[in-house]
Amino acid sequence: EVKLVESGGGLVQPGGSLRLSCAASGFSFSSYWMSWVRQAPGKGLEWVANIKQDGSEKYYVDSVKGRFTISRDNARNSLYLQMNSLRADDTAVYYCARDRSWYSDWGQGTLVTVSS
Amino acid sequence: QSALTQPASVSGSPGQSITISCTGTSSDVGGYNYVSWYQHHPGKAPKLMISEVTNRPSGISNRFSGSKSGNTAYLTISGLQAEDEADYYCSSYTSRNTPVFGGGTKLTVL
């Protein structure tokens, strides 16, 4: 059974940093692209970033470029999102998802709240 | 990276059929057969309903079907059931080598 479990969310002040983690199991993690997708309160889904199997290619939505960094550790079957210079509009539930040009599997999400 | 355009809401009675549209451009929906659809119940993980325009994953009811014409993709749900009430999102691969989601459609089963 495929399982994706996010962690690391919480309350952070504007300008602060947070590192999200996603633990993957039930599939060959190193064989797939992975993505982070978020949903702000009352808003729709928004793709945030994705990373190739070996980490050699990374892509970001324009609004997080230069502030967020996606990475992975295939030995630990883990995906990460380092979020710096956080803003109020980054407040959202963040999901990790297995990326096959579609998202076949999702975690339950972790809530990030940016507020003073 | 403009979001794909979906109607904000649709509704139907049990047993009826509804169709949700997802309009993009030739740089996303019209240019690739990587359109997918997701069902999202609040507080739960989104669920893949359709991949690659028309493919239904194992375990998804055949009441759900996908299609595409030009720059617009469609999700049709036939034989509406109460449990189908949810938010639905489309997504497409784009020419920027990144994906984009639609704004979401709230389905109400009357």
SSE arrangement:
The complex is a heterodimer of chains A (116) and B (110).
Chain A: E1 3-7, E2 10-12, E3 18-25, E4 33-39, E5 45-51, E6 58-60, E7 68-73, E8 78-83, E9 92-99, E10 103-106, E11 110-114
Parallel strand pairs in A: 2-11
Antiparallel strand pairs in A: 1-3, 3-8, 4-5, 4-9, 5-6, 7-8, 9-10, 9-11
Chain B: E1 9-12, E2 18-23, E3 35-40, E4 47-50, E5 64-69, E6 72-77, E7 86-93, E8 99-101, E9 105-109
**Helix coverage percent of residues of chain B?**
under 10%
**Percentage of residues in strands of chain B:** 35-45%
Low-confidence stretches of chain B: none
Shape by Cα distribution of chain A: globular
Rg of chain A, rounded, reads: 13 Å
Query: How would you sum up the major sheet of chain A?
Result: 7 strands, mixed
Quantity of strands of chain A, as a count: 11
Task: List low-confidence stretches of chain A.
Answer: none
Sheet/helix structural class of chain B: mainly beta
Query: What spatial form of chain B do the alpha-carbon principal axes imply?
Result: globular
Broad structural category of chain A:
mainly beta
Q: Care to count the β-strands of chain B?
A: 9
| End-to-end C-alpha gap of chain B | 34 Å
Task: Estimate the strand proportion of chain A.
Answer: over 45%
> Average pLDDT across residues of chain B?
95
Folded structure, characterized:
The complex is a heterodimer of chains A (116) and B (110). With 116 residues, chain A is mostly beta strands. Chain A has no helices and eleven strands. In chain A, the strands form two sheets. In chain A, strands 2, 4, 5, 6, 9, 10 and 11 form a seven-stranded mixed sheet that branches. In chain A, strands 1-3-8-7 form a four-stranded antiparallel sheet, with no helix packed on it. In chain A, strand 7 and strand 8 form a beta hairpin. Chain A starts with a strand and ends with a strand. The mean pLDDT of chain A is 96. With 110 residues, chain B is mainly β. In chain B, strand 3 and strand 4 form a beta hairpin. Chain B is globular, with a radius of gyration of 13 Å. The chains are: A mainly beta (116), B mainly beta (110). At the A-B interface, strand 5 and strand 10 of A face strand 3, strand 7 and strand 8 of B.
